[in-house]
Write a structure and sequence with these properties.
- With 108 residues, this protein is mainly beta.
- It has a single domain, classed as Hotdog Thioesterase (Thiol Ester Dehydrase, Chain A, Roll), CATH 3.10.129.10.
- It is built from 1 helix and 6 strands; from the N terminus they run ββαββββ.
- It has a 6-stranded antiparallel β-sheet with strand order 1-2-4-5-6-3, covered by helices on one side.
- Strand 5 and strand 6 form a beta hairpin.
- The chain is globular.
């Protein structure tokens, strides 16, 4: 299933948590998006962040999606993510090493 999360850990002391999103390559969405060069749709990426926020106790129905930037196409597979709580904002990041692949905000 697209957007499966693995190894999610929360550090309540500093208001951030990290984990890994797994976008399964056999998901049927990739038959149309894009055949021969599968790319994870941005909506699935945002949905994965909403699920991670819900797992941490934030109600997705009360979050506003803001300023998501997709700096690189993501092919199906594993991606490290981090969410940092900053007052009324959840700053979302998918990264590889020091490189930011996706950034965005979920606002409470």
């Amino acid at each position: 299933m697209a957007g499966d999360k693995k190894a999610s850990e929360r550090s309540p002391g500093n208001g951030s948590w990290e984990g890994v999103f797994y976008f399964h390559p056999d998901d049927g969405i990739y038959q149309d998006h894009f055949p021969g060069y599968p790319v994870v749709p941005g909506s699935l990426i945002v949905h994965a962040f909403l699920e991670a926020a819900a797992d941490a106790g934030f109600l997705p129905d009360y979050l506003v999606i803001e300023n998501f930037r997709f700096r690189e196409f993501l092919s199906p597979g594993n991606y490290a993510f981090r969410i940092e709580l900053d007052e009324e904002r959840l700053n979302c990041l998918i990264y590889r090493g020091e490189k930011k692949l996706v950034t965005g905000v979920l606002k409470r």
